[in-house]
Amino acid sequence: MSKNLKNFWYVCEFSANITDKPLQTVIFNEKFVLYRNRQGQVVILKDQCPHRGAALSLGWVEDGCIRCPYHGWKFQDDGKCIDIPANSPETPIPQRAKVQTYAVQEKYGFVWLFYGDLPEAERPPLPTNIPEYLFASSMRAAPHVDLDKANYVRLMETNLDFAHVIAIHRKSFGQRIPLNSTVKYDVDEQDYSAVAKFTYDSLSSSKSVLNFLLGGRPRVTLRLSFYLPNFTLAEINVGGDSRWAIKFAVLAGYCPIDEKTTSVKRILFRNVLPFPWLDKFFIKLDSILAHEDTIVIESLDPQPLPDVSEEIHVAADGLGIALRKLQQKYLAKGWSLEASEKKLPVSALHK
């Protein structure tokens, strides 16, 4: 049985990237085309013309509709063809001249695509407990994308791991964390998400590249969250409730191109040096730290996430275990996207 979930909202792209020019995205080897109609709403269609199979993402948007690049067939945002240039206006358009459409929402700077066959009233909600301070004027947001040769859930899990920083990030900032002390925390688990918090006093002997930002021996609080099926939030607070506290956070959508390739859409938030001209510096720093994770995650065998019983666990793995258990809960419910399930029921693909 596939361990990929259906009947959830998948992050698939940044909202800012969707314009009136068609854009292709790939989820589980299935191609989609995204664009904005005349009302500014995001439209998601299957990226395949029903006539000869051309990629609609190579076409163009006209009057809020998309034109096929091959023969110019014109499709509304409900997928219905309304014009075939090779036919006279009085010629009836074939009923089968229709493209599959997908439900879509925008929130937190991302576009979310519903991938499943549940009626609208029964679908899980988008995350509702993302902290509001992230979107305050004091926080600067810098989006960027990483393409990783690793399974999307494996990449999610490393962002839920409090203990990996002392090894993977030992040359950057991991040496600030005291060794030989138990990493133990409580996990607050909800229907589709979980969150945990861990606090420690950083070591003053650190030679971290972040020394110029952290300095001294401040108290550091990490708050990590995940939201099924492909969304995480990592929050870092240095200095507690002090008005001088340094805050970083990363919202990340892990878009599974296939079982071993993931496009990671990240938005890095910061309250330190919130100047637009410094975005490239902080994006580069975030990418370097993320790449430290990726080098190791790409080596994991197997790549698809094993069942809880198949690996060894310790107390520090609590949040990752919660992720696996929630996945198993919905897989047992029948919400599995089977490898043979290339096409979802048309009844599910409405707006």
UniProtKB/TrEMBL annotation:
<keyword id="KW-0223">Dioxygenase</keyword>
<keyword id="KW-0411">Iron-sulfur</keyword>
<dbReference type="Pfam" id="PF19112">
    <property type="entry name" value="VanA_C"/>
</dbReference>
<dbReference type="InterPro" id="IPR050584">
    <property type="entry name" value="Cholesterol_7-desaturase"/>
</dbReference>
<protein>
    <submittedName>
        <fullName>Aromatic ring-hydroxylating dioxygenase subunit alpha</fullName>
    </submittedName>
</protein>
<dbReference type="InterPro" id="IPR044043">
    <property type="entry name" value="VanA_C_cat"/>
</dbReference>
<keyword id="KW-0001">2Fe-2S</keyword>
<dbReference type="InterPro" id="IPR015881">
    <property type="entry name" value="ARHD_Rieske_2Fe_2S"/>
</dbReference>
<dbReference type="Pfam" id="PF00355">
    <property type="entry name" value="Rieske"/>
</dbReference>
<dbReference type="GO" id="GO:0051213">
    <property type="term" value="F:dioxygenase activity"/>
</dbReference>
<dbReference type="InterPro" id="IPR017941">
    <property type="entry name" value="Rieske_2Fe-2S"/>
</dbReference>
<keyword id="KW-0408">Iron</keyword>
<keyword id="KW-0560">Oxidoreductase</keyword>
<dbReference type="InterPro" id="IPR036922">
    <property type="entry name" value="Rieske_2Fe-2S_sf"/>
</dbReference>
<feature type="domain" description="Rieske">
    <location>
        <begin position="9"/>
        <end position="113"/>
    </location>
</feature>
<keyword id="KW-0479">Metal-binding</keyword>
